[in-house]
Specification:
Elements (H helix, E strand, L loop, with lengths): L5 E2 L2 E4 L1 H8 L3 H10 L5 E2 L5 E4 H8 L5
Antiparallel strand pairs: 1-2, 2-4, 3-4
């Protein structure tokens, strides 16, 4: 298993991992990140990583 980047005890997920948890495609996840619906960080290589806390927040029921 590869190491996940950690900063201040935050775990970051790769797009395919976060998408699988949320039940969407990685492309949908990218759209959400571009529209500000989910937080992401960009690596120097240009790849995105998604904080576990942001993915978990998307799983919580949203108030009406």
């Amino acid at each position: 298993m590869t190491q996940r980047p950690k900063t201040d005890s935050e775990t970051y997920l790769r797009p395919n991992e976060a998408a699988a948890i949320l039940g969407v495609t990685p492309k949908t996840l990218t759209r959400w990140a571009e529209s500000g619906d989910i937080r992401s960080v960009r690596l120097p290589s240009g790849h995105r990583r998604y904080p576990q806390s942001s993915v978990n927040a998307m799983l919580q029921p949203q108030p009406p």
